[in-house]
Write a structure and sequence with these properties.
Layout: H1 2-15, H2 17-37, E1 46-48, E2 51-53, E3 60-65, E4 68-72, E5 77-82, H3 84-89, E6 103-109, E7 112-121, E8 124-131, E9 134-140, H4 145-158, E10 160-161, H5 163-171, H6 191-211
Antiparallel strand pairs: 1-2, 2-10, 3-4, 4-5, 5-9, 6-7, 7-8, 8-9
Helix pairs in contact: 2-4
């Protein structure tokens, strides 16, 4: 036992806490995702055109525009995009695993698919999490990883589409899905692009809120 303890201590000194913490976080992420998706979540407290979902206590949905939402927690901001058009036509995008990711994992639960990717940027984590035709992105402090993944998983696992409403919207051409001038939610090979978009998005929100507190319209951002 003493030899094992000495070995672990020497490993800690050689590698540093970050390596061990990172390994622990990866295991925690896997456990959180599996645990939440194994549940049958029928709760919801947000209802929009064609879909509804649940946000855990302490989270607040703001700046909802069509199918983009900004969700606030005490410490972090989550950006949610719900793609009802892809859901209606059952269109999917391939997921490409990347070697430079801290975590890149395909997901499949209860007949629904997606993926989760985590990369490290400037000593923080960038998370891209897609499931059931919906995606959440966030740029967070490392010590908030487990809580953020838990909140994201609850949101994505609870999304429930209303086929009748979506069909009506499609039939009436009420869904305007032209390519947006400004898109936080398109996958990007260079995550610095996300950070630039994030800064632009937040600056626009602050300016918009200071003027008249109107709902954010991403199409208006030049």
């Amino acid at each position: 036992m003493k030899k094992i303890y000495a070995f672990l201590l020497s490993l800690l000194l050689l590698t540093g806490c970050s390596t061990i913490d990172l390994y622990t976080n990866q295991n925690n992420v896997d456990n959180i995702v599996k645990d939440v998706f194994s549940k049958n979540i029928n709760l919801y407290n947000n209802v929009f055109d064609g879909y509804k979902f649940y946000t855990p206590r302490g989270l607040k949905v703001i700046d909802k525009n069509k199918y983009n939402c900004k969700i606030l927690t005490n410490d972090e901001t989550l950006y949610l995009y719900v793609d009802v058009v892809s859901y209606y036509y059952k269109r999917t995008k391939p997921h490409y695993n990347k070697d430079n990711m801290i975590l890149s994992k395909d997901l499949s639960y209860n007949g629904k698919n997606g993926y989760i990717q985590i990369s490290e940027i400037n000593n923080k984590y960038y998370i891209e999490y897609l499931f059931n035709y919906s995606k959440i992105e966030a740029y967070i402090n490392k010590n908030n990883l487990n809580e953020t993944i838990l909140n994201m998983t609850y949101i994505l696992s609870s999304i429930d589409y209303n086929d009748k409403v979506i069909k009506t919207l499609v039939d009436k051409n009420a869904l305007d899905y032209k390519e947006e001038k400004f898109d936080l939610f398109e996958s990007k090979s260079d995550k610095s692009n996300f950070l630039e978009a994030l800064e632009k998005y937040d600056n626009y929100v602050e300016k918009n809120e200071s003027n008249d507190n109107e709902v954010l319209n991403v199409d208006e951002i030049e």
